[in-house]
From TrEMBL:
<dbReference type="GO" id="GO:0005739">
    <property type="term" value="C:mitochondrion"/>
</dbReference>
<feature type="region of interest" description="Disordered">
    <location>
        <begin position="81"/>
        <end position="106"/>
    </location>
</feature>
<dbReference type="InterPro" id="IPR037667">
    <property type="entry name" value="FMC1_homologue"/>
</dbReference>
<comment type="similarity">
    <text>Belongs to the FMC1 family.</text>
</comment>
<protein>
    <recommendedName>
        <fullName>Protein FMC1 homolog</fullName>
    </recommendedName>
</protein>
<feature type="compositionally biased region" description="Basic and acidic residues">
    <location>
        <begin position="81"/>
        <end position="94"/>
    </location>
</feature>
């Protein structure tokens, strides 16, 4: 079972990563989304004397949103890396996968 310090550490790491992802999509730390997320984290803070199930639900939801934001960013980067290159020639495609064209010397 994880200690309270470990839970808080994981929780604050998730919060930092969420805010970083929001910054990356031009929704800096001053955006409404960022303010809402920070408010939710503060609202569900727990102490050693109080155990809050909503805190665990908040952590799960935060990790889900973080996964969505990271995946969206990576997809955008991937699409941009392939955009603009146009189609490859048959020779380039064959070379890329390790095939030789029929007229190439063996």
């Amino acid at each position: 079972m994880a200690t309270t310090a470990t839970k808080l550490s994981a929780s604050s790491q998730t919060l930092k990563r969420l805010l970083t992802e929001l910054k990356g999509i031009n929704m800096g730390s001053s955006s409404l989304a960022a303010k809402y997320i920070v408010d939710q984290y503060r609202r569900f803070e727990t102490t050693e004397q109080v155990h809050c199930r909503a805190k665990e639900e908040l952590q799960f939801t935060a990790e889900t949103y973080l996964s969505y934001l990271e995946s969206t960013r990576k997809l955008k980067e991937l699409n941009e890396s392939y955009r603009g290159k146009g189609e490859r020639s048959i020779r380039d495609t064959a070379d890329m996968v390790g095939f030789k064209l029929p007229h190439d010397p063996k």
